[in-house]
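re: that complex we talked abt at group meeting.

here r the seqs, copy pasted straight from the sheet so there may be weird spacing, ignore it
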Amino acid sequence: QVQLVQSGAVVKNPGASVKVSCKASGYTFTGYYIHWVRQAPGQGLEWMGWINPNSGGTNFAQRFQGRVTMTTDTSITTAYMDLSGLRFDDTAVYYCARAIGTDKAWWGQGTLVTVSS
Amino acid sequence: SYELTQPPSLSVFPGQTARITCSGDALPKQYVYWYHQKPGQAPVLVIYKDSERPSGIPERFSGSTSGTTVTLTISEVQAEDEADYYCQSGGSGGIYVFGTGTKVTVL
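got the structure back, here u go
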């Protein structure tokens, strides 16, 4: 069955970078885009961007341009999201999700990133 | 930036019908997807392409569209339907957006 298993919770200082991983299994990894979505405490879902594992092509929400990097390692069917210049308001649960905007959408369990000094 | 607007909350008694709206100027040109999210869990797709239901989703969930507003209808609401509900659209130009979310409380 389809699974997206994300890395564990982390605490980072302001200004630092964080890298969250998303290990995919149960389907052809290169066949579906991977999206990243975040959810601040008590808030709604915010789409961050996507990566095409087949080509490496990416597209990001404007507010994250220049601060986010998305990559994949197809040899281990894993996607990564790097967010730099962390601020207190980047504290959120970060989700990877397969194929948002299709009937094949599937979400990881989420990774809590806490930005704290 | 493009926005999708939902009512913040909705309360309904078991067995009644809940209707959750999602409004956005571009909706006549784009499909809408609906997710529900229970506390501490990841979102789950309940409707795709405005009105299609994924396998495993109960028939009481349905979707409809009219102009710039789409509606998720939950018929004969059950206690287990208590959750946050989000609409999502986009894809045009590679950009996606989520609605503001609606908290459904089953009284």
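couple things i noticed - The mean pLDDT of chain B is 93. The first strand of chain B starts at residue 9 and ends at 12.
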